[in-house]
TrEMBL record:
Name by which UniProt lists this protein: Metallo-beta-lactamase domain-containing protein
SUPFAM superfamilies: Metallo-hydrolase/oxidoreductase
Organism (species): Sulfobacillus benefaciens
Domain Metallo-beta-lactamase: 22-196
Coiled-coil intervals: none
Length: 218
């Protein structure tokens, strides 16, 4: 069920029930327990997690990735961390009623930290409704986890939102998403854990440079 990504990090996936893309969750195993990032639900997931000793915490990168958080949070009595800027309406509809709201200053389990990624205010969005507004999670060892902002493709390239969701993708939106990701990414980052598509292992700086060059951003 789980595919190893790096030391003590695994991923799993399941089809989105309403769309054509895959949802990806990540499991991080630390000394204090297991942390899940944007976990999609599978019938066999609770039993597998129980065999690992349960769940310490669930962390969402965006209110659009509530996925299996409510059910897993209830089953394991685990706190659900949600970005402070998340839509309360979206959370209410997903049945997440008492989350732990976090921002860039909030201590997170297993020494994770958050970096807010808000795509600049392009012409097609209002100031109160940015195109993308999520948290990038920074893990030890040069790894970051994202929600919808970026992902790896099947052929090993870096995709920026809405690539991977829309085909063809609006190039202005792609350029804006890529610019925000590159500007907010810690300099020592080499690996991307993506909540859609493929992870990128160790090649992240080179792939960012290639895409920036394509758009004249480098």
């Amino acid at each position: 069920m789980f595919t190893p990504v790096a030391h003590h990090i695994w991923r799993w996936l399941t089809p989105d029930p309403e769309d054509h893309w895959m949802m990806v969750g990540h499991l991080i195993q630390g000394n204090q327990g297991v942390v899940l990032i944007d976990p999609p639900m599978r019938p066999d997931l609770p039993a597998t997690l129980q065999a690992l000793g349960g769940v310490l915490a669930i962390i969402l990168t965006t209110h659009d990735h509530t996925r299996g958080a409510r059910s897993l949070g209830q089953t394991f009595r685990a706190p659900i961390y949600v970005p402070a800027q998340a839509s309360r309406t979206n959370l209410f509809r997903a049945g997440i009623n008492n989350p732990v709201f976090y921002d860039e200053t909030t201590p997170l389990p297993l020494d994770l930290r958050a970096v807010r990624c808000t795509v600049a205010l392009p012409l097609w969005q209002s100031e109160t409704d940015p195109y993308v507004d999520e948290m990038m999670l920074v893990l030890p060892g040069g790894m970051v986890a994202t929600g919808d902002l970026v992902m790896g493709s099947e052929n090993g390239t870096l995709l920026a939102c809405p690539e991977g969701f829309n085909d063809p993708a609006d190039k202005d939106k792609v350029k804006a998403s890529l610019a925000v990701f590159a500007s907010r990414l810690p300099k020592d980052s080499t690996t991307l854990l993506a909540s859609h598509g493929s992870d990128i292992i160790r090649d992240l700086p080179e792939l960012i440079y290639t895409r920036q060059r394509d758009f004249g951003l480098s």
